[in-house]
Amino acid sequence: MAPPDVHHLFHHPIADHSFSADRQTLAVARDNVVDLFQRSDNKYTLQDELTGHDKTVTGVDIAPNSGKIVTCSQDRNAYVWEPTPEGWKPTLVLLRINRAATCVRWAPSETKFAVGSGARLIPVCYFEEEDNWWVSKHIKKPIRSTITAVAWHPNSVLLAAGSTDGHARVLSAFVKGVDARPEPSAWGERLPFNTVCGEFLNNTAGWIHSVAFSPSGNALAFAAHDSTLTVVYPSAPEEPPSAVVSLSTQVLPFMSLVWSTESEIIAAGYNCEAYRLQGDENGWQLAGSLESKGRPGVQDSREESALNMFKQMDLKGSTKDDTKLKTVHQNTISTIRSFEESDGQVTKISSTGVDGRVVIWTL
Amino acid sequence: MANVNWRTINVDALDPDSPANFDLSSLAPSVAPVSTADVQSLAGQIRQLLRGGDNAGALQGALENPPYGADAQGKDVHLATVIEILQSIRQADMSPILSQIYSSPGGTEALDVLMKYIYKGMAQTNAASSTRNITPQATGFSQVHARGGGEGGSQAMSVLLSWHEKLVEIAGPGSIVRVMSDRRTV
């Protein structure tokens, strides 16, 4: 297994990150700006800065085909940035929310995107040709608390949303005139806007950090603050799901998750390392960490001179530098995303966290 | 209007969509109400097991039936039962019993319940010993603790602390996080 590709960008937490389709441009949310980094010679150099938000940016997403960047922030606004010869041109999106926006994701069709917010609703935004403006429709019911995570189904109509009320929901975000009628699936047949296709809650009901559909869209996974991972397998529309598998882990909660195949999830969070989880409808289990423990070079073990050793003993009372974690990330991992895929399998993932590092892992 | 301190107006109460205006219990998984009499009869059965020397069985039985739906009195009865079991198990037997529960079906759930009782027990012994240790004069610090109450409290605490240590070894910090985020309290 190739060692992880580590880049320390800056000493600030990274709330969210996104790579362009060619993986040469990296957008990271840093405080109230979005930094665009360009890859050259295996290094990331700061290329551009998207300024416009006046509060912390909470989400950034690059559409793979059109290259448009959508950002959202605690200032309750979202912008769509389009590349022009003069630079990035922002367009304000009318979210109509009175609380912070918490997360944003493009639909796979790239004609619309969903924004999670603290106003207990999800604005689903699409481009109105007539007015030349991004407008939003609100998914309101039955959300009772802040939306912390959104994820799209591959059909671009169904939306999964995780909330601080402990529920993960599957909702329809069908917009007339923008979407084609979706194929019926196990989640539902007729899907007008704001149809609730499922509401899921596990026993401990911790608030949700991350939701994700499996590659086929026929399963939903969510990670909550009770250190659990729950996977829901729907059976048929309007029927209870055929299986809800909840795995209580021994580690600290997961903040983000990615399906690598239909039977494997990569999850990372407060433990500062990424874990591999495997299973199916009959049960899930933690298969292990992506880190190889005790790998040389993680702890930079320098040759210590005797003088230096006694100096350290005198200054700190110990010769070991125990201020570093044994993991690659030195703080909570907040986002992981698929970096490279082949034959429908994710082969590489990228992770960013509170420590300002971006790491690319080979699975 | 000038007299109204508008900063103290509870705006959430005026907003029909506000979270203050809906039933929060609908957000959490529902729990069936349990009467105190039921908790007491369960405690009797568990004591029977304990007298028979089946400590592990008693602990498992107590952890599999936490009275989430009981009132404060019923919860206290069950807490007393669990603490009694914990105190009657020798230190050397703790880890084997915990591993046995962990590997049984529903084991992580049972250990999470145990963690809840350990924290609740700690909170209780603290409260009990601190009320007994209040000195009449407000001296700011007290050198001598009231011996009797403090001794009993610290002994119960040391039992709970060693259980906590053993439990974290097996169930991990995930169990602690679950206790904090779970709305079903013991």
3D architecture notes:
The complex is a heterodimer of chains A (about 375) and B (about 190). Chain A is built from 1 helix and 28 strands. Chain A has one helix spanning about 305-315; strands spanning about 5-10, 15-20, 25-30, 35-40, 45-50, 55-60, 70-75, 80-85, 85-95, 100-105, 110-115, 120-130, 135-140, 145-150, 160-165, 170, 195-200, 210-215, 220-225, 230-235, 245-250, 255-260, 265-270, 275-280, 285-290, 335-340, 345-355, 355-360. In chain A, the strands form 7 sheets. Chain A has a 4-stranded antiparallel sheet with strand order 1-28-27-26, with no helix packed on it. A 4-stranded antiparallel sheet of chain A has the order 2-3-4-5, with no helix packed on it. Chain A has a 4-stranded antiparallel sheet with strand order 6-7-8-9, with no helix packed on it. In chain A, a hairpin with a 4-residue loop joins strand 15 and strand 16 (about 170). The radius of gyration of chain A is 21 Å and the shape is globular. The N and C termini of chain A lie close together (about 10 Å). By secondary structure, chain B is mainly α. Chain B is built from 7 helices and no strands. Residues about 130-135 and about 140-150 of chain B have low confidence and may be disordered. The interface between A and B is medium-sized, with 23 and 21 residues. Chain B: It is found in: Cytoplasm, Cytoskeleton. Chain B: Pfam families: P16-Arc. Chain B: InterPro entries: ARPC5 (IPR006789), ARPC5_sf (IPR036743). Chain B: One of its GO terms (biological process) is Arp2/3 complex-mediated actin nucleation.
Q: Brief description of this entry?
A:
The complex is a heterodimer of chains A (363) and B (186). Chain A has one helix and 28 strands.
How is the topology of this model organized?
The complex is a heterodimer of chains A (363) and B (186).
Chain A: E1 5-8, E2 17-19, E3 25-30, E4 33-40, E5 43-50, E6 57-62, E7 69-73, E8 78-84, E9 87-93, E10 101-106, E11 112-117, E12 122-128, E13 133-139, E14 147-152, E15 158-163, E16 168-172, E17 196-200, E18 208-213, E19 220-224, E20 228-233, E21 243-248, E22 254-261, E23 264-269, E24 274-280, E25 283-289, H1 306-316, E26 333-342, E27 345-353, E28 357-362
Antiparallel strand pairs in A: 1-28, 2-3, 3-4, 4-5, 6-7, 7-8, 8-9, 10-11, 11-12, 12-13, 14-15, 15-16, 16-17, 18-19, 19-20, 20-21, 22-23, 23-24, 24-25, 26-27, 27-28
Chain B: H1 11-14, H2 36-51, H3 55-64, H4 72-88, H5 91-103, H6 107-132, H7 147-181
